[in-house]
Amino acid sequence: MCGIVGYIGPRSAVPIIVESLRRLEYRGYDSAGVAVLDEGACKVVKSVGKINNLAELLDQEPLEVKIGIGHTRWATHGRPSTRNAHPHTGNSGKLAVVHNGIIENYVELRERLTAAGANFTSDTDTEVIAHLLEEKLTNGAGGDMLEALRLASREMHGAYAVAVVSESCPDRLHVVRKESPLVLGLGQGEVYIASDITAVLPYTKTVMVLEDGDVGVLTVDGVSITGLDGRAIDRKVLEVEWDVGAAEKGGYDHYMIKEIHEIPDAIRHTMRGRVTPEGLLNITELNLSADEIRDLKRIYIVACGTSYYAGVVGKYLFERLLRIPTEVDVASEFRYRDPVFEPNSLMIVISQSGETADTLAALREAQRHNVKVLAIVNVIGSSMYRDADAVFPTLAGPEICVASTKAYVTQLVCEYLLAFHFARLRGQMADAEVNRLVAEMLAVPAKVQQILAQEDDYKTLAKNFLESQDFFFLGRGLDAAVSLEGALKLKEISYIHAESYAAGELKHGPLALMWDDVPVFVTATQTDLYEKTVSNIKEVKARRADVLALVRESNVDIAQHVDWVIKVPDADNLVMPFLTIIPPYLLTYWLSFALDREIDQPRNLAKSVTVE
Ligand code: G6P
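The joint structure predicted for all components is written out below.
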């Protein structure tokens, strides 16, 4: 995700800003830039690609300055390009802003500001902040940047951490935060700004973490924080003990567990801008016409690995809600099975990297047959993002652990939002039903947090499986779809052989492998299929296998049949996958941890598979 840094103090600002940006590289980015005040004049330098490109530009014309801000951008609105890189300026070029987050109402603001004379030069949501600040400075704030920031914040919806440098106040930096992280590093007569603690650690271990609605003024004399209403706020100053490695992982031992903990926010981000603050579905970004959606006769979902398993959930969803026959294929098979492409079809490719060779080949194959392709990707500007006919990005932020977790969950979010949007357009779901299911989804992040709060139970549970050689996963309906991903995660990280079966298939093979102490992870949350799944549990138990059952919180009768019970909060059957995937993720992590596996980089596996 984007990274923000800044510095004001007695030292040379540019090397500090560049070094701080390097510290944020692990978050992922596609362009970078800085803005400084050079003898009072605002100067912006930016470039696409690596920070080295930016550093080379800065070396060509060294700037000896004491105040500045910097940014690494992970594209969300507009492709990676120098034009779209931060910092952004307004018409005058006298102030520059860097931003992390999403301004949800930026289209509306952009239209209003353009009509009032703002000249936009990028495709980003961030640029509206620069123009808005310029407007407020002359109209309402009487030239006072602090007041301008407060006024602008009142008009901006969404999430943002913003830092501003301006010719109008050359001795100070300004920041404001809402829902996106922002920390200040406090040195002797100097202040650092950063999106996370990692960037300031080489300089100071004394930090202040800003909270929602905080507006900060930073000078060589220190920091003053006020609320949006102008009231003074006394934020705690902390001494951090982390080393840099721990800081990048947010204090966790591995990226995998950090990313599992980021799932609630990743879901929120992916819904933001597609669901209004009032909870109404509002998808305007798709490059598919209403007629194309109404005329759809067939959907092909094509992907690899975890993304493929997200596609399996999609098949259940699209067929159930849209009554459109939906095929789901692993891309390496799809491209060679000489698929039949029908008119009025849509291919949906799913990929966190947007670069997987087989998926990309399937996309091209479909386009050769005049089938439109919609891409659900996490990396803006990736090959699939560029080449698909329509894109609907997941907004999970960069995922560093090779095994995908938060990206999978956000892929599901995208599928669900698309299914609701299509179903409404096709007259298959009334507004009230869409609103009800969107409300169910809005409640998901808090429910995931409830599961994560019981993490210690999984550490204990994992100890039962240290000697296990095989693991079976069973489920029916959406529980079966999610179990596939659970088994994949367990095998790739713990190296324990794991297989997932539709519970109804038990008698057609795996039952032969059920005997003493074989662990069987059964998910039974789909209420309409519950009784049938319990019958399967009994069959397994009769062969003396050990059953770990994942059920709803309201379930009272499962304990008598099984060895261990895991509960997740109740929700509509349809949204259960968002909750039922978390326990297998936590169990995998803590079991692999106990087995001392290379969790973030499992042997032989890669994050982005760009060869066949
Ligand atoms: C690799 C990664 C997986 C990922 C799969 C598909 O195997 O390790 O995490 O699910 O590729 O990648 P994609 O980028 O297309 O989702």
